């Protein structure tokens, strides 16, 4: 039985003080929440937020990481640094990394495998642009991102991977795929996973939806059979909008 996983991606928002304040509020208001919940502050706030969430039911995630353990990689943050801070999850292959910074499937895959090697649980993001959807390439794009992102990942390791389907055209735009449309893509992703790892393994994978998730649509999205949670952007920046998403039922 899959459990719901709600993750907040704060992106490039909030100073250390603002991050600590929000994390403190979330820890208090989400105590006892039945869903798995994670927040991913900016790198600069990870250490301070780690102290706030320690011992709580709120997990600490990072928004990205470098593809190497250490070395001459100016500006990168390594998996070892993240582990040292108490990070348990890392968002990889987010559309803003793919389309804004040119990260391809091969690079994302290197990061996924490195995260797994060191015990971090990756959230692998996949999703199509509006042009790709309208030209009938949705399944080709999402299928390739899923297969190539998981290249070299074993069935045992798959249990530690979360997939986040985020239609690029719905991120931060206010547009949301209809619950039925989103569920259809989630079902397709599960079919791809089954072709790689078998039906049983595919049924066990948590697949989140990301793309203008808010309190008003969370329950309807989560009610669909293949949607197992949410990767939340803008609505995760305030407790009054994020808490109702986590407590959607």
Layout of secondary structure:
Layout: E1 5-9, H1 16-29, E2 36-40, H2 46-53, E3 58-62, H3 79-85, E4 89-92, H4 95-101, H5 105-117, E5 121-126, H6 130-134, H7 138-149, H8 155-158, E6 162-165, H9 179-197, H10 199-204, E7 206-209, H11 215-222, E8 229-232, H12 239-246
Parallel strand pairs: 1-2, 1-8, 2-3, 3-4, 4-5, 5-6, 6-7
Structural overview:
This protein has 249 residues and is α/β, with parallel strands linked by helices. It has one domain: TIM Barrel (Alpha-Beta Barrel), CATH 3.20.20. It contains twelve helices and eight strands. The protein has helices at residues 16-29, 46-53, 79-85, 95-101, 105-117, 130-134, 138-149, 155-158, 179-197, 199-204, 215-222, 239-246; strands at residues 5-9, 36-40, 58-62, 89-92, 121-126, 162-165, 206-209, 229-232. Strands 7-6-5-4-3-2-1-8 form an eight-stranded parallel sheet. Helix 2 links the parallel strand 2 (36-40) and strand 3 (58-62). Helix 5 runs parallel beside helix 7. The longest helix is centred in the last third of the chain and has 19 residues, at 179-197. The mean pLDDT is 96.
Number of helices: 12
Give the class-level CATH name: Alpha Beta
CATH superfamily: Aldolase class I
Using the alpha-carbon principal axes, give the shape. Answer: globular
How many domains, as an integer?
Answer: 1
Strand content: 5-15%
Which key phrases capture this entry?
alpha/beta, eight-stranded parallel sheet, TIM Barrel, 249 residues
């Amino acid at each position: 039985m899959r459990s719901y996983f709600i993750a907040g991606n704060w992106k490039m928002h909030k100073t250390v003080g603002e991050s600590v304040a929000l994390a403190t509020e979330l820890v208090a208001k989400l105590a006892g929440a039945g869903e798995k919940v994670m927040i991913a502050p900016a790198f600069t706030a990870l250490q301070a937020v780690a102290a706030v969430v320690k011992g709580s039911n709120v997990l600490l995630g990072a928004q990205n990481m470098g593809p190497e353990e250490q070395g001459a990689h100016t500006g990168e943050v390594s998996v070892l640094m993240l582990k040292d801070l108490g990070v348990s999850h890392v968002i990889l292959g987010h559309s803003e990394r793919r389309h804004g910074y040119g990260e391809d499937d091969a690079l994302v895959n290197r990061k996924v495998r490195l995260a797994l090697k060191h015990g971090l649980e990756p959230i692998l993001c996949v999703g199509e642009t509006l042009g790709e959807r309208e030209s009938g390439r949705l399944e080709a794009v999402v299928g390739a991102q899923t297969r190539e992102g998981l290249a070299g990942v074993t069935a045992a390791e798959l249990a530690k991977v979360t997939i986040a389907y985020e239609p690029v055209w719905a991120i931060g735009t206010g547009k949301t795929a209809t619950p039925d449309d989103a569920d259809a893509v989630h079902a397709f992703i599960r079919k791809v996973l089954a072709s790689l790892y078998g039906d049983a393994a595919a049924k066990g994978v948590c697949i989140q939806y990301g793309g203008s998730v808010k309190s008003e649509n969370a329950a309807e999205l989560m009610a669909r059979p293949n949607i197992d949670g949410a990767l939340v952007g803008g609505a995760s920046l305030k407790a009054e909008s994020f808490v109702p998403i986590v407590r959607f039922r």
